[in-house]
Design a protein that fits this description.
single chain, mainly alpha, two-stranded antiparallel ribbon, 5 helices
Length: 106
């Protein structure tokens, strides 16, 4: 969840931003985060997607073939988007809210 586009949006818009676009995480910002419970099916799907992405990253770093790297990177992006869609659903975001998050603006 913390690596989802939704939480990235929250972090970028609430945390201290340092030169080089580094975020500074203070406890009082993190305490305000609401991690919602979800159904087992969504939880299982998120776990499977994360495990698959981690495996893809291992493959990405172990190959030197540019074509293979491109294919793996595209698959990672697609799986990350699946995670984002599940997170949006868990938090009940409307299409308008999703658009705001994806644009990165309020």
């Amino acid at each position: 969840l913390l690596n989802s586009r939704l939480f990235d949006f929250y972090f970028v818009n609430t945390l201290a931003l340092y030169p080089g676009k580094f975020l500074r995480f203070f406890n009082h910002y993190l305490i305000k985060l609401t991690i919602l419970e979800t159904d087992e099916q969504s939880k299982t799907k998120l776990i499977e997607l994360v495990q698959f992405i981690l495996e893809l990253y291992r493959k990405l770093h172990s190959t030197n073939d540019p074509h293979t790297k491109t294919n793996i990177s595209r698959t990672i992006s697609a799986k990350e988007e699946e995670i984002n869609q599940i997170v949006y659903k868990i938090y009940g975001l409307t299409d308008a809210e999703i658009l705001l998050v994806e644009r990165g603006t309020f």
